[in-house]
């Protein structure tokens, strides 16, 4: 059902009021990224606020995943800067000039971001408990008991408390992804990046993973960057939806603005494919 213009304006104003006065937890400043001669990110400016949930949608190759990997320091920007929690991520200042940050700085900043990947990346030789406790013990320096307690809490949150001693090969794809979510949550990041976390799952397992993410989002505490092709999920969970194509942000707004009253022909065409798919058996 189409929202009336006044409803659209009120929705946008509600979003603005919610985050008014807050400093961004993440800020991309004129970011570019090239792989050889291929420029995949083309001068992107983007801010993510504390507690905000942003869904990034767009065609394959639009640069969505690369933006997440830049934030996780898995890829280095070609130009521009990224700020995380009030500090430069990839750079430090020296005598008024920006220089590339050292590994010690990157390691510290990396602990503020968690990322869930498409393909779980669990250690097959470790049971669920060891998969979840390894990082808090080795990176955060938690004791065995502290890491255990935190891991059990997070596994309970994702509905897998009874799977502590099970190995990844004994889990379904949905269960593996939920373990991966618990492993990221146990680090208590300030920002969580979800990179197409359901794309490798069988259709019947998608719902269980999305429900866990919805519950985490409903808690409202953590900023989340949700790279997704699940349009209904983006509509339900996000405070703001960003549509990217060919390395640029084409359009952004509240879910109502993006899905009910989009402005660009490029976005209309993209969304039209999902409407068509939904209407055909």
What does this structure look like?
It holds the Pfam family ABC_tran. One of its GO terms (molecular function) is ATP hydrolysis activity. Residues 26-271 form the ABC transporter domain. It is found in: Cell membrane. Keywords: Amino-acid transport, ATP-binding, Cell membrane, Membrane, Nucleotide-binding, Transport. The chain is an alpha/beta fold and 281 residues long. Helix content is 41%, strand content 24%. The chain contains ten helices and twelve strands. The protein has helices at 5-19, 64-71, 103-110, 128-138, 144-157, 173-185, 203-219, 231-237, 255-260, 265-279; strands at 26-35, 38-48, 53-57, 79-84, 87-88, 91-94, 97-100, 113-116, 191-195, 223-227, 240-245, 248-253. Strands 8-9-10-3-11-12 form a six-stranded mixed sheet, sandwiched between helices. Strands 2-1-4-5 form a four-stranded antiparallel sheet, covered by helices on one side. Strands 6-7 form a two-stranded antiparallel ribbon. Strand 4 (79-84) and strand 5 (87-88) form a beta hairpin. Helix 4 packs across helix 5, helix 4 packs parallel to helix 6 (173-185) and helix 5 (144-157) packs across helix 6. The longest helix is centred in the last third of the chain and has 17 residues, at 203-219. The radius of gyration is 19 Å and the shape is globular. The two termini are 22 Å apart. Residues 1-11 and 276-281 have low confidence and may be disordered.
């Amino acid at each position: 059902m189409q929202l009336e213009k006044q409803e659209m304006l009120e929705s946008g104003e509600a979003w603005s009021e919610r985050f008014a006065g807050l400093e961004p937890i993440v800020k991309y400043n004129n970011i570019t990224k090239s792989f050889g001669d291929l420029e995949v990110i083309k001068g992107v400016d983007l801010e993510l606020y504390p507690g905000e949930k942003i869904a990034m949608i767009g065609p394959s190759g639009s640069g969505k995943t690369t933006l997440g990997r830049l934030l996780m320091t898995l890829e280095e920007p070609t130009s521009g800067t990224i700020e995380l929690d009030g500090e430069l991520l990839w750079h430090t200042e020296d005598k008024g000039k920006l220089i590339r940050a050292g590994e010690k700085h990157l390691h510290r900043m990396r602990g503020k971001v968690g990322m869930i990947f498409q393909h779980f990346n669990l250690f097959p030789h470790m049971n669920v408990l060891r998969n979840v406790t390894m990082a808090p013990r080795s990176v955060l320096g938690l004791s065995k008991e502290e890491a255990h307690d935190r891991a059990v809490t997070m596994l309970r949150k994702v509905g897998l408390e009874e799977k502590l001693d099970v190995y990844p090969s004994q889990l379904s794809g949905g269960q593996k992804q939920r373990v991966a979510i618990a492993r990221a949550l146990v680090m208590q990041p300030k920002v969580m990046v979800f990179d197409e976390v359901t794309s490798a799952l069988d259709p019947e397992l998608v719902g269980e993973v999305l429900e866990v993410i919805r519950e985490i989002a409903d808690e409202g505490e953590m900023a989340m960057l949700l790279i997704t092709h699940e349009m209904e999920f983006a509509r339900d969970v996000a405070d703001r939806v960003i549509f990217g194509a060919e390395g640029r942000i084409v359009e952004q707004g509240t879910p109502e603005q993006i899905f009910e009253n989009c402005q660009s022909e490029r976005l209309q065409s993209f969304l039209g494919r999902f409407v068509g798919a939904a209407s055909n058996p």
